[in-house]
Amino acid sequence: MLNEFKSKSNLIWLGALALLLVLSLVDLTFLSSCSGIEQGAAKQEAVQQDAEGQGEKVTSTAESGSTDEDAEETGKQSKSAAADGIDYLVLVNKTHELDPDWENTVKLVETTNKRGSTVTVESTALTAFEELQKALDAEGVVIDLNSCYRSRAKQQELVDQFTQEYGSDYVEKYVAKAGHSEHETGLALDVIPIVNGVEMLTNDEMLAQKDLWKVVHATMPKYGFILRYLPNQESITGYEYEPWHLRYVGTPDAQKISDSGLTLEEYLGEA
Q: Which of 102, 156, 256, 258 could make an S-S bridge to 178, C-beta 3.0–4.6 Å?
């Protein structure tokens, strides 16, 4: 009987021990599982935080990129303005000499006037003149290109020629020294009026066309041209009134200058 009791007791202890062992294993598995979950969660959080950090960097880079693009675009515009790019307000007169390198940077093109003569003009100025010419034709006013771009060497030839033919006083009033002529810019256009199919070629003939010039001078600012040598402004411009001498400065400066009644020197603060 005692032996049977001991045997049952042993079985109970063995059962309890087995149960404890099983519970221990379950607990260890649970703890391990929890630890794995926590580690996984921590790892996921770390990945998420890293992704957000990169996202912030990307956003920052994108914002910075946008700023850089804006700055780059502004830079392109500035470079474009300089490249295409000549200074249409360049001042050339008796006291302001044109940069000798000008003709290497300006874009000059050739055209043929109504007489069949080849005339050279700065490209943008020529396009503007052709538009002006069409507008004037619609109003019954006809003008044509006469003398436009001249090289420095050609200008010197003219100075020598006119001095011999008309004298130094005439040259002082109407002909610029080499390096000081607006014609060397390609932006100065001497035009002639054509009345009833007849070209007015001499200064006296052209000066007599007062009504014609009123129309021309009132229309041309819209196309970027100003009257360069205004009446009674010789002390500032250095030259007497020349209604035929148009100067391309571009828009809207042409309209501003014309509306102000100022010479180019005064407009630029160089009078």
A: 156
Q: pLDDT tens-digit profile of 72-123?
A: 433 333 333 344 578 999 999 999 999 999 989 999 999 999 999 999 999 9
Kindly report, residue by residue over 211-248, the tens digit of the pLDDT.
999 999 999 999 999 999 999 999 999 999 999 999 99
Q: Answer whether residue 44 shows pLDDT above 60.
A: no
Q: Are 89 and 247 in contact (CB under 8 A)?
A: no
Best CA proximity match to 91, nearest among 171, 217, 184: 184
Length of the chain, please? 271
Backbone angles phi, psi at 63, to 5 degrees: -65, -45
Question: How is residue 3 written in tokens?
Answer: 């032996």
Q: What is the spatial distance between Cα 123 and Cα 84, in angstroms, rounded to a whole number?
A: 10
- Indicate the domain borders of the chain: 1-85, 102-267
Residue for token pair 């610029």: 176
pTM of the model: 0.68
pLDDT, mean of residues 139-165: 95
Q: Hey, CA dihedral for 152, 153, 156, 162, is it positive or negative?
A: negative
Return the structure tokens found at 194.
């054509």
Which of 231, 229, 103 shows the shortest CA–CA distance to 174? 229
Indicate the fold that domain 102-267 takes in CATH: Muramoyl-pentapeptide Carboxypeptidase; domain 2 (3.30.1380)
Rounded alpha-carbon distances, angstroms, from residue 147 to 56, 130, 188, 229 = 64, 15, 8, 16
Token pair for residue 1? 């009987």
